Amino acid sequence: MHLSTESLLIILLVGLLAGWLAGQIVQGTGFGIIGDIVIGIIGAFIGSWLLPQLGIHLGVGILSAIINATIGALLLLLAIRLARGGGGSRWGWGRKLGQTLVVQRWGHGCEHLRAIRFPSKGL
User: Would strands 99-105 and 111-117 be described as parallel, antiparallel, or unpaired?
Assistant: First the structure.
């Protein structure tokens, strides 16, 4: 099997865009260039297998490939999030329940950002 340079660039571009979009939707930020590409390419495999199984066909072209890979990447990230318990992880996938970020300001323009735990209500 021969993979041309153009095909490789398209695969990397679709993976990068799909991984970045999925990261934006799930956690509000991407995972860096390499992380976005890896998540997007794995998501493309998931999407291209799962969507036809469900009878969903998006068509052909780069836009449909990006949408397909993004859907697969979203499913991948949500599955990882569920497996990890949904709480904050080392990638910053959200704060745990009852945790609030507080910005403290001191004189002379100094700021300090820290997490403070407040008791959760009724949960």
Answer: antiparallel
Pull the structure tokens for residue 95.
């704060």
Residue 29 CB contacts under 8 Å (≥ 6 apart), including other chains: 23, 92
Cα 55–chain centre separation: 25
Per-residue pLDDT at 69 exceeds 50: yes
Q: How many CB atoms lie within 10 A of CB 95?
A: 13
Buried b vs exposed e over 75-92: b needs ≥16 C-beta within 10 Å? ebbeeebeeeeeeeeeee
User: Is residue 94 over pLDDT 50?
Assistant: no
CB atoms within 10 A of CB 93: 18
